[in-house]
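Quick look at the format.
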Amino acid sequence: MKSVGIGTRVINFLVDTIVVFTIAYIAAKINKYYAFQQRMIYVQFGYVFFASLFVYYTICEVLFARTLGKLASYSKVVNSEGKRPNILQVLIRSAIRVTIIDMFFIPFLDKTLHDYCSKTNVVEA
């Protein structure tokens, strides 16, 4: 299995960010409507976005070992043995993705922080 390059990772990031932003935008609008109409708690968009990010990556990678971005770039997530990552590894990946410093570890580790900490890799499908 061949690891993907930075260009593929950028495609994954852009596609997935567009999908997550769309989901979060819709959820935030629904929340704003119900907060106004039903006197429910209003949640700021940033919180909705990061919650959507966590849920999106967790569900997609647990069920399919791929997100829509990885599907578009013909790549998938594998563990150190080349198999599907387990649920704990996916939860670690998703939790670390929410941090802003995740991508800045590429020059030091040759991979993102979420790949390093979860002992996973993104490879060609």
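Next, a different chain entirely:
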Amino acid sequence: MQVKKRMAEKLITVSKDMSIPEAIGLMKKYSIRHLPVVDNDSLVGFITESDMRQAYLASLLDEMIIDDVMIKNPITIEPDADLEEAVELIYRNKIGGLPVVKDGKIKGIITVADILAVFIEIMGVLKSSSRIDVILGEKPEAFEEVSRIIKTNGGEIISVGMSNYHQGKSKRVYFFRLEKCEVEPIVKSLEETGYQIVSVIK
């Protein structure tokens, strides 16, 4: 998935000569935590809620402007970049968001909240669903067989997760999240085929 598919495009931007109190007011008004600093649509800096909190400590707050506290060479990403690249940049640099830039022009912002929304959507966490946690064992075709058993018994897989080793044993637990369904026939068939069910959420 590309960054441009999930970035925020309707942006509130500021100029580098705006006062800090004005910028704080914008953040509060629009409930945002990041402000691109632009000059003729070109990104010249980036300011965050954290930067604002640090500015609060300054005794000359009313006299300070964005240029005094902004990040002048922010880490950026292009709209066509993979979302995974954005995740890595945010994680490795311990930041809350990235300006999305093409040819020096600001196109959007991608934040931790945007990425979390994608994860929730993919995992189906907020959807009404069922879940079966299974230890697949060592069979090479186990994943395909379990998936087939689920489908044969009326289950539709939304997502699959994988744990670390179960209770210190060298066996991974696979979490099959399904569209809401009757799980009993699926569980019975899996157990009859020899798979160990760890837990079931109906």
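The first helix runs from residue 20 to 30.

See the schema section for token definitions.
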